[in-house]
Design brief:
alpha+beta; FAD/NAD(P)-binding domain; 18 strands
Length: 437
Amino acid sequence: MCGSLLAIKMAQKGYQVELRESRYDLRTKALEGGRSINLALSARGLLALENVGISEQIKKQCIPMVGRMIHSVAGELRSSKYSGRKDEVINSISRTGLNVALLEKADSFENLHITFDSRCIKVNLEEGSAIFKNKNGSEEIVHADVVLGTDGAGSSVRRSMMAKTTALLFNYSQNFLRSGYKELQIPPAEDGSWRIEKNALHIWPRGKFMMIALPNLDGSFTVTMFHPYEGEAGFNTLNTPDKVQAFFEKYYSDSLPHMPDLQEDYFDNPVGVLGTNKCYPWQAYGKVCIMGDAAHAIVPFYGQGMNASFEDVRVFDEVHEKLRGDWIAIFEAFQDLRVENTNAIADLAIDNFYEMQDKVDDIPFIRKRTLEMKLEQTYDDYYSKYSLVTFRPELPYKEAMRRGRAQDELLLELCAENKVEDLNLEGVYKKINALTI
């Protein structure tokens, strides 16, 4: 999706764009099931979509989620809003639907050509050319002024840069969580309605594992299990229908009436891995530049992977406008603006993984969220860490992390020792301001 958005923006600027997609055309058949964590589109992504004139069209595909709906083991429900401001929501959107909308927009430009089933194998960094393997097995070399690599976490463009480690002083790290994910479904009710609360991101937090569900326009929910590989909750342990049934009865009992296809979904859909990639530099010789997951793949627990990639395109556009014509300067300025910020959201996403599965039911955390809601409702310029990251697109991720972590530490300390009603709200607000200047 980052590649499609980038291609649109470059076509709008008047460049002749060749867009290569390794998969088939999603407009001809749906994305294969089991590997698509539903997407959460928020302010940073919407701002980037607005920049190419497609945000209003995309919003029509969205379901707003006002907060988390937390399911206890006993089946009790607790709502936790994302923000104390009514207009601040995140949006559930189909990965396929968003992909198709971007492809349709890209296909509307005469100076943008799309080739599907064409997988990049290798890039010549000095020449700015790339070798592609097409659907029939033939190989093709494509030459260009610049190559922009948005080919995902397993990027061939990045691997070509890694092959020049010494020449580029190329640093790369990859870290996997000891947990994977599996996609399930809650189908629509018989009348086509949603079986559980529509305008919420549902979480079943269980300490060392969890399950989440995001709504779809057709009345269904995309459900994702985030579990370790080993142990009682491990995917390798839950390997028979009886074990899966017994496990859900014990830990996710309130979901069972809504999941008639549980066994089929569980055993048909693969287990995906969850990892973080970081690297630097993102450019080579003023001929090649990577962005999106190719440069900074992150885990999905802040709902910012797609939003951060779309933000890459917006920032790249801003840099390009200032330095147009000097690709070396453009690429170097872009990477230096982005790398610290994408590293920051990668770290925040790991933090949120542990928060979502283990902390959302803790008393101090519940008190902290209640206090944050009161602060946001009372003071226009107060934003919680979550709001700084999600609803302040003008604020770099690195700064959002700095401010958010500082105030989180203070608020958790206060809420561990006090009930919210016993705290002086103005005094807390002043302490936060002094701490995050």
